[in-house]
Amino acid sequence: MKIDTDLAEDILKKAIRNGAALAEVFMLSARSLSVEVKSREIDALETSMDFGYSLRVIKNQHLGFSYSTEPKDWQRVVDDAIESSLFTGEDPCLDIAKPAACPEIDTYDGAIAAISEEDAIDRVRQIEDAALRRDQRITKVRKASGSFAEAEILILNSRGLKAGYRATSASAQIMVVAEDGHDAQMGWGYESNRFLGGVDFEMAGREAADRALRLLRARKIKTGKGSVLLDSSVATEFLSVLASSFSSENVQKGKSLLIGRKGEQVVSEKINIVDNGLMKGAVGSRPFDAEGTPSLEKRLIREGRLMGYLYNIYTAGKDNTASTANAVRHGIHGVPVVGISNLYLEGASDKFIYGHDELTGQIDRGLLVTEAMGIHTANPITGEFSIGVTGLWIEKGEVKHPVKEAAISGNILEFFANIAGVSRNLRFYGKIGAPDILIEGVDISG
Its GO CC terms (predicted)? Predict the structure, then answer.
């Protein structure tokens, strides 16, 4: 079902008539096509269509909320939202967005919206074919898949805000197995973009094959301290652990590593960390956030120094500051919370940015980490972690052999404080991106 502006306006008017001081309607219509291929045959094909809307009301500074997927239920939704406000506490920080000019950003690709099942299947077959052609030691494809999605969003509120946009996204994923004698290793590949032309389906297959192949005949290493070069995908996983600490919601709840540290040097002066909702092609880009606040670019870390946190309207009110356009919603089923748009790490200046081979050449004794297991177990409040890793052992700037059954441990902030340099190849995995990152003085266990 398409977005119905008249329905949204009717909901808004009734909410105000029924006593809401402020009201906001969020409406979402989405369609997706997912394909899985195995041995060039279709393993799964799924099309989904979703529609829904939610209503937030503020009555006597009490929050009310309700939602539905049925247009005919709109009057009940209003009644339920008003009634639910009777059971929440008074909160002076509750508010909704004021109308404001939003930046122009292209988030919609007609090629994704119009893609046929046949075209989608063919593109996923390209992923599998590229992996299998890479080397005869690629013996199995566990899963090759692609997803193609479009969505339309409308936000209408009683302050006069009326904002909407359409967005698309496509992704390619694959998991393969490489075998050599009795040894078997897995590798994966991933690509995503808001535009079909920004997704290299064959590259995903080749990358998965290369990841698996370079780990064949892996050996154990001795325990000790050394340098660690994080592949961009692993660097992104580490950044995802730190990401939650930038949330003002977590700061206010005492669940952040960065409480009370604004203005302080918290990581290496060689890096910046940025959240940018305006990056072309990135899947987290949009003209405004989930409350209607215009998107912008925020430097959270500048030359290692913490510049600020991410806010939505509510958390900004609690800190007497402005929203940073970081309200997100997980569908229609809940009120906005704080989240990232496109979060990434970069070198603070050109003198800290190198080619991949240049970074490798700086390592006297250390490990290029290509896969990390269990990063989700890192403590987001203390920053402590101990995780299993695989990769390539490096001595005197040269790759010696693949490594298995190794582990690295430490503290996230100390980890990022010891960054010696980054590469030029910034890559995004979903909404988080990073280059390769060289870190010194890491505890490496065999």
Answer: cytosol
Contact 121, 98 (CB under 8 A): no
Q: What is the pLDDT of residues 303-319, one digit of tens each?
A: 999 999 999 999 999 99
The answer to whether the Cα torsion of 222, 232, 112, 284 is positive or negative is positive
| C-alpha of 321 from chain center | 25
SS3 assignment, position 326: coil
Asked if the structure places residue 219 within a domain, the reply is: no
Would you state the pLDDT for residue 416?
A: 97
Q: What is the per-residue pLDDT across 55-91, written as a single tens digit (0 to 9) for each?
A: 999 999 999 999 999 999 999 999 999 999 999 999 9
Is the separation of the CB atoms in 168 and 239 below 8 Å? no
The more confidently predicted of residues 193 and 374 is: 193
- CB-based burial label for 2 (10 Å; 0-12, 13-18, 19+): exposed
- 247 in the same domain as 165: no
Residue 141: count of CB within 10 angstroms of its CB: 22
Would the pTM of this model clear 0.90, i.e. be above it? yes
Same domain? For 104 and 238 the reply is no
Cβ atoms of residues 192 and 170 within 8 Å = yes
Mean pLDDT in residue range 188-196: 97
Residues 114 and 27 in one domain: yes
Residues 57 and 195 in one domain: yes
pLDDT at res. 139: 96
Length of the chain: 446
Q: Which helix (H) or strand (E) holds 43?
A: strand 41-59
Q: Which domain holds residue 112?
A: 5-213
The number of domains in the chain is 2
Q: Are residues 319 and 229 in the same domain?
A: yes
The interaxial angle of helices 5-17 and 74-84, nearest 10 deg, is: 40
Whole-angstrom Cα Rg for the chain: 24
Which pLDDT value is given to residue 376? Answer: 86
Distance CA 107, CA 26 (A): 19
Classify each residue of 55-93 as buried b or exposed e, where b means 16 or more C-beta atoms within 10 Å of its C-beta.
Answer: bbbbbebbbbbbbbeebeebeebbebbbebbeeeeeeee
Beta strands across the sheet bearing 432-434: 305-306, 297-302, 271-276, 343-347, 432-434, 427-429
